[in-house]
Amino acid sequence: xxxxxxxxxSSAYRCRIAFNLKGLEYDFESVxxxxxxxxSADFAAVxxxxxxxxxxxxxxxxxxxxxxxxxxxxETYGGARLIPADKDLRAQVRAFAQVxxxxxxxxxxxxxxxxxxxxxxxxxxxxxxxxxxxxxDGLQACEDILAKRGDATAYCFGDEPGLADICLVxxxxxxxxxxxxxxxxxxxxxxxxxxxxNPAFAAAHPKAQPDFEA
Amino acid sequence: xxxxxxxxxSSAYRCRIAFNLKGLEYDFESVxxxxxxxxSADFAAVxxxxxxxxxxxxxxxxxxxxxxxxxxxxETYGGARLIPADKDLRAQVRAFAQVxxxxxxxxxxxxxxxxxxxxxxxxxxxxxxxxxxxxxDGLQACEDILAKRGDATAYCFGDEPGLADICLVxxxxxxxxxxxxxxxxxxxxxxxxxxxxNPAFAAAHPKAQPDFEA
Lengths: 214, 214
Hints:
CATH topology of the largest domain in chain A: Glutathione S-transferase Yfyf (Class Pi), Chain A, domain 2
Helix content of chain A: 40-55%
Strand order of the largest sheet of chain A: 2-1-3-4
Number of domains of chain A: 2
Oligomer: homodimer
Protein backbone atom coordinates (compact mmCIF):
# COMPACT_ATOMS: atom_id res chain seq x y z
CA UNK A 1 0.00 0.00 0.00
CA UNK A 2 1.12 3.55 -0.73
CA UNK A 3 -0.10 6.13 1.76
CA UNK A 4 -0.07 9.79 0.72
CA UNK A 5 -0.20 12.05 3.74
CA UNK A 6 1.38 14.85 5.68
CA UNK A 7 2.72 14.79 9.23
CA UNK A 8 0.44 17.52 10.54
CA UNK A 9 -2.83 16.52 8.85
CA SER A 10 -5.31 15.23 11.45
CA SER A 11 -6.90 12.97 8.86
CA ALA A 12 -3.54 11.43 7.95
CA TYR A 13 -2.79 11.03 11.67
CA ARG A 14 -6.03 9.05 12.05
CA CYS A 15 -4.99 6.68 9.26
CA ARG A 16 -1.51 6.19 10.73
CA ILE A 17 -3.01 5.13 14.06
CA ALA A 18 -5.29 2.70 12.22
CA PHE A 19 -2.38 1.16 10.28
CA ASN A 20 -0.44 0.74 13.50
CA LEU A 21 -3.31 -0.74 15.52
CA LYS A 22 -3.88 -3.30 12.77
CA GLY A 23 -0.15 -3.97 12.32
CA LEU A 24 -0.18 -2.98 8.63
CA GLU A 25 2.93 -1.90 6.72
CA TYR A 26 2.76 0.88 4.13
CA ASP A 27 4.99 3.00 1.93
CA PHE A 28 4.68 6.63 2.91
CA GLU A 29 4.75 9.53 0.47
CA SER A 30 4.69 13.03 1.91
CA VAL A 31 2.39 15.56 0.24
CA UNK A 32 3.72 18.89 1.39
CA UNK A 33 0.62 20.98 2.08
CA UNK A 34 2.35 24.24 2.88
CA UNK A 35 3.91 24.31 -0.59
CA UNK A 36 0.58 23.31 -2.19
CA UNK A 37 1.69 19.87 -3.44
CA UNK A 38 -1.85 18.56 -2.82
CA UNK A 39 -3.05 20.81 -5.65
CA SER A 40 -0.68 19.24 -8.21
CA ALA A 41 -2.05 17.37 -11.24
CA ASP A 42 -0.36 14.18 -10.01
CA PHE A 43 -2.14 14.26 -6.67
CA ALA A 44 -5.48 15.38 -8.16
CA ALA A 45 -5.34 12.32 -10.44
CA VAL A 46 -5.35 10.16 -7.29
CA UNK A 47 -7.80 12.26 -5.26
CA UNK A 48 -9.84 14.79 -7.25
CA UNK A 49 -10.74 16.47 -3.96
CA UNK A 50 -7.07 17.52 -3.61
CA UNK A 51 -6.92 16.85 0.12
CA UNK A 52 -4.73 14.41 2.02
CA UNK A 53 -4.77 11.60 2.87
CA UNK A 54 -5.11 9.14 0.01
CA UNK A 55 -4.35 5.44 -0.11
CA UNK A 56 -3.29 3.44 -3.15
CA UNK A 57 -4.07 -0.18 -2.35
CA UNK A 58 -2.02 -3.20 -3.41
CA UNK A 59 -4.47 -3.83 -6.26
CA UNK A 60 -4.30 -0.21 -7.44
CA UNK A 61 -7.48 1.27 -5.99
CA UNK A 62 -7.30 4.92 -5.07
CA UNK A 63 -9.10 5.66 -1.80
CA UNK A 64 -9.52 8.93 0.08
CA UNK A 65 -11.37 10.39 3.06
CA UNK A 66 -9.88 9.05 6.28
CA UNK A 67 -13.03 7.47 7.75
CA UNK A 68 -13.76 5.62 4.51
CA UNK A 69 -10.12 4.45 4.36
CA UNK A 70 -10.23 3.20 7.96
CA UNK A 71 -13.52 1.30 7.44
CA UNK A 72 -12.02 -0.25 4.30
CA UNK A 73 -8.85 -1.29 6.16
CA UNK A 74 -10.95 -2.84 8.92
CA GLU A 75 -13.10 -4.73 6.41
CA THR A 76 -10.11 -5.89 4.36
CA TYR A 77 -7.49 -6.88 6.90
CA GLY A 78 -7.41 -8.90 10.11
CA GLY A 79 -5.70 -7.74 13.27
CA ALA A 80 -7.32 -5.56 15.90
CA ARG A 81 -10.93 -4.68 15.14
CA LEU A 82 -11.31 -0.88 14.88
CA ILE A 83 -15.08 -0.77 14.39
CA PRO A 84 -17.31 -2.91 16.63
CA ALA A 85 -18.96 -6.06 15.27
CA ASP A 86 -22.20 -5.17 17.08
CA LYS A 87 -24.26 -2.90 14.83
CA ASP A 88 -25.75 -0.86 17.68
CA LEU A 89 -22.38 -0.11 19.26
CA ARG A 90 -21.00 0.49 15.76
CA ALA A 91 -23.57 3.28 15.27
CA GLN A 92 -22.44 4.93 18.50
CA VAL A 93 -18.76 4.70 17.57
CA ARG A 94 -19.35 6.04 14.06
CA ALA A 95 -21.42 8.93 15.45
CA PHE A 96 -18.66 9.87 17.89
CA ALA A 97 -16.10 9.77 15.06
CA GLN A 98 -18.39 11.93 12.94
CA VAL A 99 -18.80 14.53 15.68
CA UNK A 100 -15.08 15.10 15.25
CA UNK A 101 -14.76 14.54 11.49
CA UNK A 102 -17.94 16.40 10.47
CA UNK A 103 -18.30 19.09 13.13
CA UNK A 104 -14.93 19.98 14.65
CA UNK A 105 -12.07 19.23 12.29
CA UNK A 106 -13.57 20.90 9.16
CA UNK A 107 -13.60 24.23 10.97
CA UNK A 108 -9.91 24.16 11.83
CA UNK A 109 -8.21 22.70 8.80
CA UNK A 110 -5.52 24.56 6.92
CA UNK A 111 -7.60 25.93 4.04
CA UNK A 112 -10.24 27.36 6.41
CA UNK A 113 -7.64 29.02 8.63
CA UNK A 114 -5.97 30.43 5.51
CA UNK A 115 -9.34 31.85 4.41
CA UNK A 116 -9.92 33.44 7.82
CA UNK A 117 -6.48 35.07 7.76
CA UNK A 118 -6.15 35.99 4.08
CA UNK A 119 -9.66 36.45 2.68
CA UNK A 120 -11.32 37.77 5.84
CA UNK A 121 -8.19 39.47 7.16
CA UNK A 122 -8.71 38.22 10.72
CA UNK A 123 -5.98 38.85 13.25
CA UNK A 124 -4.61 36.14 15.50
CA UNK A 125 -6.96 36.99 18.40
CA UNK A 126 -10.01 36.50 16.19
CA UNK A 127 -8.59 33.28 14.71
CA UNK A 128 -7.90 31.98 18.22
CA UNK A 129 -11.46 32.85 19.31
CA UNK A 130 -12.78 30.91 16.29
CA UNK A 131 -10.65 27.89 17.22
CA UNK A 132 -11.60 28.10 20.89
CA UNK A 133 -15.28 28.18 20.00
CA UNK A 134 -15.40 25.20 17.63
CA UNK A 135 -12.78 22.99 19.26
CA UNK A 136 -14.06 23.88 22.73
CA ASP A 137 -17.74 23.25 21.97
CA GLY A 138 -16.95 20.15 19.95
CA LEU A 139 -14.71 18.47 22.49
CA GLN A 140 -17.21 19.39 25.25
CA ALA A 141 -19.83 17.49 23.21
CA CYS A 142 -17.43 14.51 23.05
CA GLU A 143 -17.00 14.64 26.83
CA ASP A 144 -20.79 14.78 27.33
CA ILE A 145 -21.33 11.85 24.98
CA LEU A 146 -18.81 9.74 26.90
CA ALA A 147 -20.35 10.78 30.25
CA LYS A 148 -23.77 9.65 29.01
CA ARG A 149 -22.34 6.17 28.34
CA GLY A 150 -21.74 5.60 32.06
CA ASP A 151 -18.57 4.64 33.94
CA ALA A 152 -15.24 5.60 32.43
CA THR A 153 -13.33 3.00 30.41
CA ALA A 154 -9.68 3.01 29.37
CA TYR A 155 -10.60 4.00 25.82
CA CYS A 156 -13.68 5.80 24.51
CA PHE A 157 -15.88 2.75 24.00
CA GLY A 158 -14.29 0.06 26.14
CA ASP A 159 -10.98 -1.45 27.10
CA GLU A 160 -9.56 -1.57 23.58
CA PRO A 161 -8.85 1.35 21.26
CA GLY A 162 -10.86 1.84 18.07
CA LEU A 163 -12.25 4.36 15.61
CA ALA A 164 -13.44 6.81 18.29
CA ASP A 165 -9.97 7.02 19.85
CA ILE A 166 -8.40 7.21 16.39
CA CYS A 167 -10.39 10.40 15.77
CA LEU A 168 -10.14 11.82 19.28
CA VAL A 169 -6.36 11.79 19.66
CA UNK A 170 -5.50 13.95 16.60
CA UNK A 171 -8.28 16.36 17.60
CA UNK A 172 -6.89 16.76 21.13
CA UNK A 173 -3.43 17.17 19.63
CA UNK A 174 -4.83 20.03 17.52
CA UNK A 175 -6.41 21.61 20.61
CA UNK A 176 -2.97 21.56 22.25
CA UNK A 177 -1.34 23.00 19.15
CA UNK A 178 -3.87 25.83 18.97
CA UNK A 179 -3.71 26.48 22.75
CA UNK A 180 -7.39 25.69 23.30
CA UNK A 181 -7.86 24.98 27.00
CA UNK A 182 -9.62 21.65 27.53
CA UNK A 183 -8.08 20.89 30.93
CA UNK A 184 -11.59 20.57 32.44
CA UNK A 185 -12.53 17.67 30.12
CA UNK A 186 -11.30 15.01 32.52
CA UNK A 187 -12.51 11.93 30.69
CA UNK A 188 -11.06 13.00 27.35
CA UNK A 189 -7.74 13.90 28.97
CA UNK A 190 -7.56 10.51 30.69
CA UNK A 191 -8.22 8.70 27.39
CA UNK A 192 -5.68 10.89 25.61
CA UNK A 193 -3.02 10.01 28.21
CA UNK A 194 -3.91 6.33 27.89
CA UNK A 195 -3.47 6.55 24.12
CA UNK A 196 -0.12 8.32 24.40
CA UNK A 197 1.21 5.31 26.30
CA ASN A 198 0.05 2.93 23.55
CA PRO A 199 2.88 2.34 21.03
CA ALA A 200 0.45 2.30 18.06
CA PHE A 201 -0.60 5.85 18.89
CA ALA A 202 2.89 7.02 19.85
CA ALA A 203 4.38 5.88 16.53
CA ALA A 204 1.66 7.76 14.66
CA HIS A 205 2.37 11.09 16.37
CA PRO A 206 3.22 13.93 13.97
CA LYS A 207 6.62 14.40 15.59
CA ALA A 208 7.52 10.77 14.82
CA GLN A 209 6.95 11.15 11.05
CA PRO A 210 9.75 11.38 8.46
CA ASP A 211 8.33 14.61 7.01
CA PHE A 212 8.03 16.36 10.40
CA GLU A 213 9.06 20.00 10.48
CA ALA A 214 9.26 21.98 13.71
CA UNK B 1 -39.09 5.02 15.50
CA UNK B 2 -39.14 8.64 16.58
CA UNK B 3 -37.20 10.98 14.33
CA UNK B 4 -36.20 14.38 15.70
CA UNK B 5 -35.39 16.78 12.90
CA UNK B 6 -36.07 20.09 11.25
CA UNK B 7 -37.33 20.74 7.73
CA UNK B 8 -34.33 22.82 6.65
CA UNK B 9 -31.51 20.76 8.19
CA SER B 10 -29.48 19.07 5.44
CA SER B 11 -28.64 16.21 7.79
CA ALA B 12 -32.30 15.61 8.61
CA TYR B 13 -33.10 15.80 4.87
CA ARG B 14 -30.55 13.01 4.27
CA CYS B 15 -32.27 10.80 6.83
CA ARG B 16 -35.71 11.47 5.38
CA ILE B 17 -34.54 10.33 1.94
CA ALA B 18 -33.07 7.19 3.52
CA PHE B 19 -36.33 6.38 5.35
CA ASN B 20 -38.28 6.82 2.12
CA LEU B 21 -35.91 4.78 -0.06
CA LYS B 22 -36.13 1.92 2.42
CA GLY B 23 -39.90 2.31 2.88
CA LEU B 24 -39.65 2.91 6.64
CA GLU B 25 -42.34 4.66 8.69
CA TYR B 26 -41.42 7.02 11.53
CA ASP B 27 -42.98 9.47 13.94
CA PHE B 28 -41.63 12.93 13.30
CA GLU B 29 -40.90 15.49 15.98
CA SER B 30 -39.81 18.95 14.88
CA VAL B 31 -36.89 20.55 16.74
CA UNK B 32 -37.20 24.22 15.94
CA UNK B 33 -33.62 25.37 15.40
CA UNK B 34 -34.32 29.06 14.94
CA UNK B 35 -35.86 29.25 18.42
CA UNK B 36 -32.98 27.20 19.87
CA UNK B 37 -35.04 24.12 20.81
CA UNK B 38 -32.00 21.91 20.02
CA UNK B 39 -30.25 23.46 23.04
CA SER B 40 -33.01 22.39 25.47
CA ALA B 41 -32.28 19.93 28.28
CA ASP B 42 -34.81 17.49 26.79
CA PHE B 43 -33.03 17.37 23.46
CA ALA B 44 -29.53 17.32 24.99
CA ALA B 45 -30.58 14.24 26.98
CA VAL B 46 -31.13 12.48 23.64
CA UNK B 47 -28.17 13.97 21.77
CA UNK B 48 -25.51 15.61 23.96
CA UNK B 49 -24.12 17.25 20.83
CA UNK B 50 -27.33 19.34 20.63
CA UNK B 51 -27.61 19.09 16.87
CA UNK B 52 -30.39 17.58 14.76
CA UNK B 53 -31.16 14.96 13.65
CA UNK B 54 -31.57 12.26 16.27
CA UNK B 55 -33.36 8.93 16.06
CA UNK B 56 -34.97 7.05 18.91
CA UNK B 57 -35.27 3.45 17.78
CA UNK B 58 -38.11 1.06 18.57
CA UNK B 59 -35.99 -0.52 21.34
CA UNK B 60 -35.12 2.88 22.84
CA UNK B 61 -31.63 3.50 21.48
CA UNK B 62 -30.75 7.13 20.91
CA UNK B 63 -28.77 7.61 17.70
CA UNK B 64 -27.42 10.78 16.13
CA UNK B 65 -25.17 11.93 13.26
CA UNK B 66 -26.93 11.38 9.96
CA UNK B 67 -24.37 9.10 8.30
CA UNK B 68 -24.24 6.83 11.35
CA UNK B 69 -28.05 6.74 11.45
CA UNK B 70 -28.26 5.85 7.74
CA UNK B 71 -25.66 3.06 8.03
CA UNK B 72 -27.59 1.71 11.03
CA UNK B 73 -30.89 1.79 9.14
CA UNK B 74 -29.28 -0.02 6.22
CA GLU B 75 -27.80 -2.68 8.52
CA THR B 76 -31.04 -3.12 10.49
CA TYR B 77 -33.81 -3.08 7.89
CA GLY B 78 -34.41 -4.68 4.51
CA GLY B 79 -35.66 -2.78 1.51
CA ALA B 80 -33.46 -0.93 -0.93
CA ARG B 81 -29.76 -1.18 -0.14
CA LEU B 82 -28.30 2.29 0.46
CA ILE B 83 -24.66 1.28 0.91
CA PRO B 84 -23.12 -1.20 -1.55
CA ALA B 85 -22.45 -4.79 -0.50
CA ASP B 86 -19.07 -4.71 -2.27
CA LYS B 87 -16.48 -3.34 0.15
CA ASP B 88 -14.43 -1.56 -2.51
CA LEU B 89 -17.42 0.26 -3.97
CA ARG B 90 -18.61 0.91 -0.42
CA ALA B 91 -15.36 2.78 0.29
CA GLN B 92 -15.93 4.99 -2.77
CA VAL B 93 -19.53 5.73 -1.81
CA ARG B 94 -18.63 6.51 1.79
CA ALA B 95 -15.80 8.79 0.66
CA PHE B 96 -18.14 10.72 -1.64
CA ALA B 97 -20.66 11.10 1.20
CA GLN B 98 -17.86 12.31 3.48
CA VAL B 99 -16.69 14.92 0.99
CA UNK B 100 -20.11 16.48 1.52
CA UNK B 101 -20.62 15.69 5.21
CA UNK B 102 -17.06 16.47 6.37
CA UNK B 103 -15.91 19.17 3.96
CA UNK B 104 -18.86 21.13 2.58
CA UNK B 105 -21.85 21.03 4.89
CA UNK B 106 -19.97 21.89 8.14
CA UNK B 107 -18.97 25.22 6.65
CA UNK B 108 -22.52 26.29 5.84
CA UNK B 109 -24.60 25.11 8.75
CA UNK B 110 -26.67 27.47 10.84
CA UNK B 111 -24.32 27.91 13.80
CA UNK B 112 -21.35 28.74 11.55
CA UNK B 113 -23.34 31.28 9.53
CA UNK B 114 -24.58 32.81 12.79
CA UNK B 115 -20.96 33.09 13.97
CA UNK B 116 -19.89 34.77 10.72
CA UNK B 117 -22.72 37.30 10.98
CA UNK B 118 -22.83 37.93 14.74
CA UNK B 119 -19.37 37.22 16.12
CA UNK B 120 -17.34 38.31 13.08
CA UNK B 121 -19.84 40.94 11.95
CA UNK B 122 -19.65 39.94 8.30
CA UNK B 123 -22.06 41.55 5.87
CA UNK B 124 -24.11 39.54 3.39
CA UNK B 125 -21.58 39.96 0.56
CA UNK B 126 -18.84 38.42 2.67
CA UNK B 127 -21.13 35.62 3.86
CA UNK B 128 -22.11 34.91 0.26
CA UNK B 129 -18.45 34.83 -0.79
CA UNK B 130 -17.78 32.33 2.02
CA UNK B 131 -20.66 30.13 0.84
CA UNK B 132 -19.64 30.40 -2.82
CA UNK B 133 -16.10 29.33 -1.97
CA UNK B 134 -16.88 26.23 0.09
CA UNK B 135 -20.00 25.04 -1.71
CA UNK B 136 -18.47 25.85 -5.08
CA ASP B 137 -15.12 24.11 -4.44
CA GLY B 138 -16.81 21.20 -2.70
CA LEU B 139 -19.39 20.48 -5.37
CA GLN B 140 -16.70 20.89 -8.06
CA ALA B 141 -14.76 18.13 -6.25
CA CYS B 142 -17.91 15.97 -6.33
CA GLU B 143 -18.24 16.58 -10.08
CA ASP B 144 -14.55 15.68 -10.61
CA ILE B 145 -14.91 12.50 -8.54
CA LEU B 146 -17.90 11.39 -10.62
CA ALA B 147 -16.08 12.24 -13.87
CA LYS B 148 -13.14 10.07 -12.80
CA ARG B 149 -15.52 7.12 -12.44
CA GLY B 150 -16.19 7.07 -16.17
CA ASP B 151 -19.48 7.23 -18.10
CA ALA B 152 -22.42 8.97 -16.47
CA THR B 153 -25.02 6.86 -14.68
CA ALA B 154 -28.55 7.82 -13.59
CA TYR B 155 -27.43 8.17 -9.99
CA CYS B 156 -23.98 8.88 -8.54
CA PHE B 157 -22.75 5.30 -8.35
CA GLY B 158 -25.01 3.39 -10.72
CA ASP B 159 -28.62 2.99 -11.77
CA GLU B 160 -30.06 2.95 -8.25
CA PRO B 161 -29.93 5.71 -5.64
CA GLY B 162 -27.90 5.32 -2.46
CA LEU B 163 -25.89 7.08 0.20
CA ALA B 164 -24.01 9.32 -2.26
CA ASP B 165 -27.26 10.68 -3.75
CA ILE B 166 -28.75 10.99 -0.26
CA CYS B 167 -25.93 13.39 0.63
CA LEU B 168 -25.72 15.15 -2.74
CA VAL B 169 -29.34 16.24 -3.06
CA UNK B 170 -29.59 18.27 0.19
CA UNK B 171 -26.23 19.86 -0.62
CA UNK B 172 -27.38 20.95 -4.07
CA UNK B 173 -30.61 22.21 -2.49
CA UNK B 174 -28.47 24.33 -0.15
CA UNK B 175 -26.47 25.68 -3.09
CA UNK B 176 -29.75 26.77 -4.69
CA UNK B 177 -30.95 28.31 -1.44
CA UNK B 178 -27.71 30.27 -1.03
CA UNK B 179 -27.61 31.27 -4.73
CA UNK B 180 -24.31 29.53 -5.39
CA UNK B 181 -24.00 29.07 -9.15
CA UNK B 182 -23.27 25.44 -10.03
CA UNK B 183 -24.91 25.46 -13.45
CA UNK B 184 -21.61 24.31 -15.04
CA UNK B 185 -21.59 21.05 -13.02
CA UNK B 186 -23.50 19.09 -15.63
CA UNK B 187 -23.26 15.64 -14.12
CA UNK B 188 -24.39 16.77 -10.68
CA UNK B 189 -27.27 18.72 -12.16
CA UNK B 190 -28.39 15.70 -14.19
CA UNK B 191 -28.33 13.48 -11.08
CA UNK B 192 -30.16 16.13 -9.07
CA UNK B 193 -32.92 16.29 -11.71
CA UNK B 194 -33.14 12.50 -11.74
CA UNK B 195 -33.55 12.49 -7.95
CA UNK B 196 -36.24 15.17 -8.02
CA UNK B 197 -38.35 12.86 -10.17
CA ASN B 198 -37.97 10.00 -7.67
CA PRO B 199 -40.90 10.01 -5.17
CA ALA B 200 -38.62 8.99 -2.26
CA PHE B 201 -36.57 12.15 -2.77
CA ALA B 202 -39.57 14.37 -3.57
CA ALA B 203 -41.38 13.40 -0.35
CA ALA B 204 -38.24 14.23 1.66
CA HIS B 205 -37.95 17.77 0.27
CA PRO B 206 -37.98 20.50 2.95
CA LYS B 207 -41.08 22.07 1.42
CA ALA B 208 -42.98 18.80 1.86
CA GLN B 209 -42.40 18.64 5.64
CA PRO B 210 -45.05 19.42 8.28
CA ASP B 211 -42.78 21.98 10.01
CA PHE B 212 -41.94 23.85 6.79
CA GLU B 213 -41.89 27.64 7.06
CA ALA B 214 -41.46 29.89 4.05
